[in-house]
Design goal:
By secondary structure, the protein is of the alpha/beta class. It has helices spanning 11-14, 18-27, 40-43, 86-97, 106-118, 122-128, 140-143, 157-161, 181-186, 209-212, 224-230, 334-341, and strands spanning 3-7, 30-35, 47-50, 59-61, 71-74, 130-131, 189-193, 219-222, 237-241, 246-253, 261-264, 308-314. Strand 2 (30-35), helix 3 (40-43) and strand 3 (47-50) form a beta-alpha-beta unit. The chain is globular. The two termini are 25 Å apart.
Length: 342
């Protein structure tokens, strides 16, 4: 791998085992990030492509984003500078690479989709704004369900064909008090990460003041008995630690969590910290705790982001989280960017 192209993804905040992510991105000869905001990941890029916001793109919005079987149009209303939507960037790259597919303009794709389903073009949809196709009930009575048997499958014949258990079953996580009892002696709590925060979407929107008011700081949920045993109170900073790393979050007392479980919020960085390019990504990032290493899920290929082992101690009794010396790769100088383009 010599180069990377990242669209709308703050990989340093959302991929497991952040130090491996950082080393991987830094080892590339060339990294391009298409972004709306200056994220820690964008800070690592050799080139940043300014992408379009939702008011700068043409698109089709349909089920499941809107109920009642409505297909509606998103019409471009402004053009800011040279911002380009993701699909156009990808199309232009594919054209330059001379590949067989994915070289159509987005509107050609919209025309194809609408023509197949409704017999209309994107331009016609723009004229009327939205359309509600006939909603057909009980289609399964005529055509069955889209499974090999044509039936609702609680027993998955597709999984069985691929050699996997066709029924849901429990498998002990590779890292747990039962799988790794020796590790559990030092890291006695079960760590979960990734629960959604209503104000944010993954690592997005922490730079929006109105949304940030709802969650100013990263929080980890502890049962009252657990917090008492550790010697911490609500609002105090703690260090959550695994054998891979540590991060700092504030205690939130939650009676609804198992006393043996710790929930750490994910996606945290601090856009307001502009003096360094990492924007505090190493301090409270739950992915300093997670792992990309095997064993992976045999069916899906995923790694563990939940059901890991950790310990929690007061922040003042712990070392500071590790972080590399991140430096900006570039100065956002317009003349320099124009020179690169030339």
């Amino acid at each position: 791998m010599r180069a990377g192209l990242i669209f709308g993804n703050n990989a340093l905040a959302t991929y497991g085992e952040i130090d491996v992510v950082y080393e991987t991105l830094m080892s590339l000869d060339y990294l391009v990030v298409a972004e709306l905001y200056m994220t820690p990941t964008a800070e690592l890029a050799d080139l940043i492509l300014p992408v379009s916001t939702w008011v700068e793109v043409d698109a089709i919005a349909a089920v499941p984003f809107y109920g009642q079987n409505v297909i509606t149009v998103q019409q471009k209303t402004i053009q800011y500078g040279e911002c380009i939507q993701d699909e156009v960037i990808m199309t232009e790259i594919c054209r330059r690479l001379g590949v067989e597919h994915c070289t159509e303009d987005p509107e050609e794709v919209f025309d194809y989709l609408l023509g197949e389903k409704l017999g209309m073009t994107f331009a016609e949809l723009k004229e009327i704004g939205w359309v509600q196709p006939e909603f057909k009930y009980r289609k399964y009575e005529k055509d069955g369900f889209k499974t090999p048997t044509g039936k609702i499958e609680l027993y998955s014949t597709l999984l069985e064909k691929e050699g996997y258990d066709p029924l849901p079953s429990f498998e002990e996580p590779p890292e747990s008090p039962y799988s790794t009892p020796e590790l559990a002696k030092e890291y006695p709590f079960i760590l979960i990460t990734g629960a959604r925060i209503p104000m944010f979407f993954q690592s997005e929107y922490r730079q929006m003041p109105t949304l940030r008011k709802g969650r100013r700081e990263p929080e980890c949920e502890l049962h009252p008995d657990t917090a008492e045993a550790i010697g911490v109170k609500a609002g105090e900073w703690v260090s959550i630690e695994t054998e891979r790393g540590r991060c700092r979050q504030k205690v939130k007392i939650f009676k609804g969590i198992d006393p043996n479980v710790v929930h750490a919020q994910h996606g945290w960085w601090f856009p307001e910290e502009e003096d360094t390019p990492d924007h505090g990504i190493w301090r409270s990032n739950a992915n300093t705790l997670t792992s990309m290493q095997p064993p992976y899920c045999s069916a899906m290929g995923t790694y563990q982001l939940r059901a890991l082992l950790c310990k929690v101690i007061p922040a003042d009794q712990s070392e500071e989280p590790w972080q590399p010396e991140m430096t900006k790769k570039f100065d956002t100088n317009v003349a320099e960017i124009q020179e690169w383009d030339t």
